[in-house]
Amino acid sequence: MFLEEIARRRTFGIISHPDAGKTTLTEKLLLFGGAIQEAGAVKSNKIKKGATSDFMEIERQRGISVATSVLAFIYKNKKINILDTPGHKDFAEDTFRTLTAVDSVIVVIDVAKGVEEQTEKLVEVCRMRSIPIIVFINKLDREGKDSFDLLDEIETKLGLRVTPLSHPIGMGYDFKGIYNIWNKNAKLFLEDTKTSKGKTVSFDDLDDPELERLITSNSLETLKEELELVSGVYPPFSQDEYLAGKLQPVFFGSALNNFGVQELLDCFIDIAPPPLEKQAEERVIQPNEDSFSGFVFKIHANMDPNHRDRLAFIKIVSGTFERNTPYLHVRNNKKVKFSSPNAFFAERKEIVDISYPGDIVGLHDTGNFKIGDSLTSGEKIHFKGIPSFSPEHFRYINNADPMKAKQLNKGVDQLMDEGVAQLFTMSMNNRKIIGTVGALQFEVIQYRLEHEYGAICSYENLNVYKACWVEPEDEKNHEFVDFKRVKQKFLATDKQGQLVFLADSSFSLQMTQQKYPSVKFHLTSEF
Ligand code: G4P
Fold first, then answer.
1. What is the CATH number of domain 393-522?
2. What is the CA(20)–ligand 1 centre distance, in A?
3. For 278-376, which CATH class?
4. What pTM does this model have?
5. In which order are the strands placed within the sheet that holds 177-180?
6. Dist. CA 44 → ligand 1 center (Å)
7. Which atom of ligand 1 is nearest to the CA of 25?
8. CA of 139 to the centre of ligand 1 (A)
9. Could you state, in order of their start, the residue ranges of all structural domains in the chain?
10. Which CATH class is domain 2-173+235-271?
11. Cα 145–148–154 angle (5° rounding)?
């Protein structure tokens, strides 16, 4: 029973550059999975430009993103957990963290725009971790790039090795359907499918005269030639290679028009991995172990300032998580139990008695959890792989109301635990620096400090190019001692107390590296 529950779970994330169609695809997967009845039910959690001031929009978005954090449904007896990732690039770090909790991903690419910047960054993180990837090329109802050119672009820009499992029949105005290479059949639109699951017709035999009648003999010839080219040029699909992150199947379709989505979903549940083992500092944890273990990958603060509780999202790695059972919060070395753990379904959450590996539970927390914390049946396990990346923007944060210093410190601390931004403390004078991925977070922090903690902050600009985590060859080495003395002005510690070099330009970073060859500089906190 326990093993069956593990085997039927598929926990994954959908990633894309904003506007490629992530929200639409998510919604259509829910629609085909029977979890929602009509299109339009899933709210986009992206931050729309212009309509309202940015931070009001963020508050609205925060509200929606609790509801869409995890969208779960059952399809063909598989329990599917879709982990939502923020679309806005300023929140890329949230997405990186969510990727530590997925067992596979689907990457959505816009057929006209091809590989975009955000896709490159996200796929790189997936590649580094060998996460199995399926590519979905979307918006085939529009004129876009030639499918072979696009496959080339995906290989070169994303460094993937692709194998198409479907092929479009026409494109844009002439888009007629999809040939499913996985199941070896052709599916054509018969009418406008935007509003319902639509009427389609399938052909198992490409020589069926009815197929030729529907798409014309020219198109059929082209299709056959292209399919020959696909099988000649691309490696055959191998599930082992896909699971090892060495081969990436590609699907074509139009999420908006419900086309190619069912094919994607049906293949996905066949090939995508059930919950995987996870490397901890101490050892590798297998999902089928009896003892429970899990880790926090996301913390969501309550929107209501009167209730300071937060929801910590835990990915279950092994064993079962049971309600009202004491578990060890490893970092605090304290036993805690939860009377109302939340499980997530499409658009609703409810209290759950038992959850299995692959599942996400939401735990109410009054400020004890931090991103990356582990919770176990008793074993002291520390999960790896939730590194911090160098922020892009840096500012000094000052307290603008001396009466509220305590509130400010508490607020900053909690927001950092939530992963909103990173805090550095200058070694020389203890001044605090906030580092963020996008400029928007400074507004978020200021707004939330004021509304949730009653503290007022101001910022001061600071010229930092990158934060580099410093790894000395030997702490006592005279070169390292010399480095610390000479560069004192540029040194800070992060929240874990790790030493960080705040380089003010790429040139000065290079010069420093040359001058102190035994000191290593890393752009992430885990090395
Ligand atoms: P995102 O979450 O990746 O940011 O993208 P989202 O699904 O919100 O889609 C971005 C836009 O692309 C939306 O249009 C959406 O309707 C459209 N879209 C998604 N899939 C397809 C497709 O297969 N074909 C075509 N032609 N368009 C598609 P919008 O005008 O920005 O938003 P809306 O007003 O339609 O909601």
1. 3.30.70.3280
2. 7
3. mainly beta
4. 0.85
5. 166-169, 177-180, 185-189, 200-203
6. 10
7. 7
8. 8
9. 2-173+235-271, 278-376, 393-522
10. alpha beta
11. 80
